[in-house]
From TrEMBL:
One of its GO terms (biological process) is methylation. It is an enzyme of class 2 (transferase). The keyword Transferase applies. The lineage of its organism: Bacteria, Pseudomonadati, Pseudomonadota, Gammaproteobacteria, Lysobacterales. Its EC number is 2.1.1.-. Pfam families: Methyltransf_11 (PF08241). GO terms for molecular function: methyltransferase activity. It comes from Dyella halodurans. This is Class I SAM-dependent methyltransferase. PANTHER family: METHYLTRANSFERASE (PTHR43591), RHODANESE DOMAIN-CONTAINING PROTEIN (PTHR43591:SF110). SUPFAM superfamilies: S-adenosyl-L-methionine-dependent methyltransferases. Keywords: Methyltransferase, Transferase.
Length: 311
């Protein structure tokens, strides 16, 4: 494929390996090239591919065993409002309510035409919805497969004048030059970070002055111990199902107020916390768990921080 085929919509690039701003797909400083394959810009340096190889393999295996993805285009076109597979309707209801709140209250349509980074885009459903609403999204994910990764975004071509740009890239080493996006959304993905501060700092780097970073659908716990128990339960379940541990990458897995506070101090930001209504059953989960002597369940909020003029 030629370098012109993916629509970059004026996005300026930066080498993810040596961090040099580049005018095309090739870095003159270190020789790294962003390769276009299946209309996806592959911006993972070899060392990153090696680092994430087992994590990607484990993650894809988990998602396949959970029945993610579909052979039907209708499945992708209906997300997040309809899960035509019927396998994860509860999760998609949460995603839909988070997205609606984000679109109505945090983006609010005032900046239609704004450029938005969709970090952890998966199959691209959020970028699709944002593009339909008039925004200019750019989808980023480690996964590029055709069922649950960036390759699945091919199903949106029939509904959009041009498909949004897609980059297979590491969130800590984004292939974008400084200060060109109006918002960056961690789309049910921030908890997969190995280093919260580094990931957040990289997203902030790509934002214009006054731009916002939004963390959506990452589990929050009031106690560190609850989050650690959740991760232990998840590892045990994977071992039972697959006969091996899924711990090749030490992802942080969840948020607490203490973790959020450390990010505020390190980056000199302020989190605005938003609490969408996910329904009475969801709201009652902590009380039910306490009455039954179970571990504290996760809760979801939306966290918003603005890049100041002096950042």
């Amino acid at each position: 494929m030629t370098a012109e085929e993916p629509s970059l919509s004026g996005i300026r690039l930066r080498c993810p390996r040596c961090r040099t701003d580049i005018g095309g797909w090739d870095c003159p400083a270190c020789g790294f090239s962003i390769v276009i394959n299946d209309d996806i810009a592959r911006a993972l340096p070899p060392e990153s591919i090696a680092h994430y190889a087992r994590f990607v393999d484990d993650y894809e295996r988990i998602r396949e065993s959970e029945g993610r993805g579909s052979e039907s285009a209708a499945f992708y076109l209906g997300l997040p409002y309809r899960d035509t597979s019927g396998r994860h309707r509860g999760q998609w209801r949460i995603r839909a309510r988070s997205y609606d709140y984000l679109a109505r209250h945090l983006l609010d349509g005032a900046g239609r035409g704004n450029r938005i980074l969709d970090l952890g885009a998966g199959n691209g459903w959020m970028s699709f919805r944002l593009a339909l609403a008039g925004y200019r999204p750019c989808a980023v994910d480690l996964l590029a497969n055709d069922s649950d990764g960036l390759g699945a975004a091919r199903h949106y071509r029939t509904r959009l004048p041009a498909l949004f740009p897609r980059f297979q890239a590491e969130i800590r080493r984004l292939p974008f030059a400084d200060e060109q996006f109006d918002a960056a959304v961690f789309n049910a993905s921030f908890h997969y970070a190995e280093d919260y501060e580094a990931s957040l700092r990289e997203a902030m780097r790509c934002l214009k002055k006054g731009g916002v970073v939004i963390i959506s659908d990452t589990p929050w716990y009031s106690r560190q111990e609850s989050g650690e128990q959740m991760l232990a339960d998840r590892r045990a379940a994977f071992r039972r199902s697959h006969g091996m541990a899924a711990d090749s990458i030490a992802t942080l897995g969840f948020l607490t107020d203490e973790r959020l506070g450390r990010m505020e101090d390190a980056l000199s930001i302020h989190w605005d916390v938003h609490r969408p209504w996910y329904g009475l059953t969801w709201a009652m989960r902590p009380l039910v768990a306490k009455c039954r002597g179970r571990r504290e369940p996760s809760r979801f909020r939306l966290y918003v921080a603005r890049k100041s003029a002096g950042s």
